[in-house]
Amino acid sequence: MTRPMRWLILAVVLAPAAAWGIYRLAKELGFLDPPWNAEHEQRRTIVVALFAFLLLLPIFLFGWAAAWPRVWAMFGVVNGAALLVFAVLGLTAVRRLWRLRHPAADPAPVPAAPAGGPDEGAGADGSSASEKPLV
Fold first, then answer.
1. Which residues are CB-neighbours of 41 under 8 A, at least 6 positions away?
2. How far is CA 49 from CA 39, 45, 91, in A?
3. What does DSSP assign to residue 127?
4. pTM exceeds 0.85
5. Please, what's the b/e burial string for 44-65 (b: 16 or more CB within 10 A of its CB; e: otherwise)?
């Protein structure tokens, strides 16, 4: 058996254990729990996008430095597309989180007061609070 074949068999055997370990780590860190508010959801998206960026950028730079050998050409295209997708997802999440935390930057429309409605201080009989005698 050749050395590359041994590495392939080792990778196939260890892949389920690695996947289970990553699943347990994600579960313990709370990444698999439903988000408890909109901010938490956006923060998790940002963290995932940053980790994907940190994983994919060195691969992309290594391939770029090696002038993308013929075998790696398709992998480089997929890697570049993944970098763009995660960058867009991360920036979109950052923008949404900014809007959630700074609502004054994006003011909501103020509903118009009804015309000709009763005064706010009017009682049930239509008299205002200032007309009622003090007891």
1. 35
2. 15, 6, 9
3. -
4. no
5. ebbeebeebeeebeebbeebee
